[in-house]
Description:
This protein is α+β, with helices and mostly antiparallel strands and 271 residues long.
Amino acid sequence: MSEQLGEFLRSRRAALSPAESGVPTYGTPRRVPGLRREEVARLAGMSVNYYTRIEQGESHQMSDSVMEAIANALRLDESERLHLLRLAWPAQVTRRETGPEVVRASVLALAESSTDQAVIVVGRRTDLLGGNRLGFALLGLRPDERPNMARQVFLEPAMRDLVVDWEREARNAASYLRMASSDQPDDRLLAELIGDLSIRSADFARIWATHPVAECLHSVREYDHPLVGRMTLNEESLRLPDDPGQRIIFSGAAPGSDSADRLRLLDSLVS
Length: 271
């Protein structure tokens, strides 16, 4: 994990400009974008040598105050701070079973009972575990299909046509996998998924190299569905507290909107 910690810190240092951090450059040309190590160290109030050791994975005794100082210097958001914590203190990560996931029958019943929203249940490796009829129809899937949603995003051409802002969708998928990998570093199946995507998708490899970290629990997503056309849907993602990593995702349209009419039409076409 120390190697991943260093890669993450370097990616965030490279993404932060001196102007954003209030670091004076005095007009001096810079050979590389982002902040230098000594600039991050100065912003964090520590020696360059100490910060360099952390970034190179040679220091394993970061205190709360040091972690907070680095997070502040790099302007990390809440999701990135949590990721930093997991990378810095992997021994405190709660280990879970890493075999095939099972979703509770009561969760599936909740998803299937919704009639005015598209609902799917997604596992910690982004496997589709279940959903209602409209949820499968929105994704262009049969009710008996159980694909991995990250593979769908990066490897299925139809997803690029379905999701209007595909780049954002792809970044969200990679961001979730990045968080999941730090949460469960010993999950062999998750590591195999990430490795497979890195080999088969140049887009995944490109995005993964930037170390995206985010947990998208709500958003507005636009679809261009082959059966009913353009829809703007509000998405809410709820984590299941008794099954960490599993999420139930609701996608619905504003009442009275054209998208609501199209969503009802889609439901009627697949009923």
